[in-house]
């Protein structure tokens, strides 16, 4: 896990870093745009990636987008990243197969 993804920042610090009020940050959580972790004491904890995402959200809101539109955009971007990662895995698997003469499980040596 990258240091950017570790949830170690409190909402007060996030507010200072982003210029957003704590109320705005909680609202974005209610709208499922951001997903902080919670401590045992129920304190919200954010990562540096969350801070960057909150700034992007604020910019999109400022540009006139609605929260549901932002959520759809974020979901689409996550899907694209997942698809890209899977394509990369397939390419690497194919290169290893070619390099080392490996076969898919469905292929038989005795064709």
**Any idea how many domains?**
1
The top level CATH class name: Mainly Alpha
Give the quaternary arrangement of the chains.
single chain
Total helix count? 4
Beta strand count? 3
Please list the strands of the largest sheet in the order they lie side by side.
1-3-2
Order of helices and strands: EHHEEHH
In short:
This protein has 111 residues and is mostly helical. It has one domain (3-100): Multidrug-efflux Transporter Regulator, Chain: A, Domain 2 (Orthogonal Bundle), CATH 1.10.1660.10.
Please supply descriptive tags for the structure shown above:
mainly alpha; 111 residues; single chain; 3 strands
Describe this entry's structure for a reader.
The chain has 111 residues and is mostly helical. It has one domain: Multidrug-efflux Transporter Regulator, Chain: A, Domain 2 (Orthogonal Bundle). Helix content is 59%, strand content 6%. The protein contains four helices and three strands, in the order E-H-H-E-E-H-H. The longest helix has 34 residues. InterPro entries: DNA-bd_dom_put_sf, MerR-type_HTH_dom, MerR_fam. Keywords: DNA-binding, Repressor, Transcription, Transcription regulation. This is MerR family transcriptional regulator.
